[in-house]
Amino acid sequence: MNVFLILILGFYISFYLFDSIVEWLNIRCVSTTIPAEFQGVYDDEKYAKSQRYLKETTRFGFIQQTVTLIIVVPFILLGGFNQLDVFVRSLELSSLFSGVVYILILLLGMMFMGIPFSYYSTFVIEESYGFNKSTKSIFWMDFLKSMLLSFLIGIPILMAMLWFFESLGSMAWVVAWGFLIFVQLILVYIAPSFIMPLFNTFEPLEDGELKTKLEAYSLEHNFSFEGIYKMDGSKRSSKSNAYFTGFGKQRRIVLFDTLIEKHSADELLAILAHEMGHYKLRHIHKSLALSVVTSGLMLFLLSLFLNNVLLAEAFGMESVSIYSSLIFFGFLFQPIEAVIGVLSNYLSRKHEFEADAFAVRTTALPDAMIGGLKRLSVDNLSNLEPSYLKVWVDYTHPPVLQRINAIRKLA
Q1: Is the entire prediction scored with pTM above 0.85?
Q2: 3-class secondary structure for 344-360?
Q3: Which of 85, 138, 253, 297 is 20 to 30 A removed from 52 (C-alpha atoms)?
Q4: Is the CB of residue 388 less than 8 Å from the CB of residue 337?
């Protein structure tokens, strides 16, 4: 049997089994006793509800992964990639447009395969736990907008990448790397003004105590931004969030309307200070640098496997091409991607602790910070005590109890 086929199937099935074990152990860690820190915040009924939510979403995720495995593995073994390639080649397009059509068909297949799961998650699971506020028309409009954006942005990028690797030889990966960095920066810059408003309404925060506090704090700490906006997050979900977006003078503070409704001005100030801490401590720059290095590594390794006959044979291909190599390399890159993901998550959790410390130090509101974290956790039915392995593999934020304990040590 082809060595690449053995490796790819081995990686794919091993990761499926490993993820299943991680989720099973996480469920096993669930305790029916409310942690002391949340006594009086969580009542027994709502705490039991949060555990049911965790179990149901975990089971649903397992079903989705299993169905994906059942579709992908036979598709590989039965020569699905080759049959699609034969069809695309029968259209007698140029190699560039053949590549675009081939990859788009695969991406559309994945997108449509995900629709039933997304629909069930939104209108059955999230609905039953009181989170979903979306309508079916919003759901389908979001899908259509996302697909259109993917085409408008993705097709030119894909065409450029295919052209680089077809035309520029051994240095193509360097040019492609620089191009992707440029595109990433452009998207970060234009997203607040042109992309995000396609999905949500952003209104300037009205004058009042909250706006006065946020502006005074930002001025005190020499943090400039374009404006403070309230986003209609309740249009889709009752869950809450806050974030900064954009760079330089285009930076915006965005608060979900659900967050404003459920939190005091001091709690919101502490949340803002946490987000500002990410900028002041240069976490955004570090994350961007990691992303740049990761993309460079991926493109360099990709360049080593382009037009690899043995890799193409693993997928039953009759013809070797740049565009099919892009897809097949994605399977081969899985282990490296997993390691990078674990390291990235570790760095992200470290940054969250540092941003919490920044918020406490600059606002002197540790109780408000803790209160905000507790309220967010309860309102979102968060898992208070995930397993260590689950945190290590998947969590970008530390578990809330660890964050609260760290804040208390600072107070």
Answers
A1: yes
A2: HHHHHHHHHHHHHHHHH
A3: 138
A4: no
Q: Is 206 a catalytic residue?
A: no
pLDDT band at 63 (very low <50, low <70, confident <90, very high): very high
Q: Which two tokens stand for residue 82?
A: 């080759």
CB 115 within 8 A of CB 143: yes
Alpha helices in 168-242 (DSSP H): 172-190, 209-220
User: Any idea how long the chain is?
Assistant: 411
Q: Which residues contact 39 (CB under 8 A, 6 or more apart)?
A: none
Provide the pLDDT confidence category of residue 205 given band limits of 50, 70 and 90. confident
- The residue with tokens 């040590």 is 409
All residues at 6 or more sequence positions from 391 whose CB lies less than 8 Å from its CB, including other chains: 349, 398, 399
Longest dimension (CA), the chain: 69
- pLDDT tens readout for residues 219-254: 898 888 778 889 988 888 888 788 878 776 677 888
DSSP string across 248-290: GGG-EEEEEHHHHHHS-HHHHHHHHHHHHHHHHTTHHHHHHHH
Considering 275, 313, 367, 394, which one is annotated as catalytic? 275
Helix or strand run (H / E) with residue 230: strand 227-231
CB atoms within 10 A of CB 326: 19
Query: Can 92 be counted among the known catalytic residues?
Result: no
Amino acid (1-letter code) at residue 262 = K
CA atoms within 13 A on the CB side of 191: 13
Residues 6 or more apart whose Cβ sits within 8 Å of residue 256: 230, 231, 233, 234, 239, 240, 241, 242
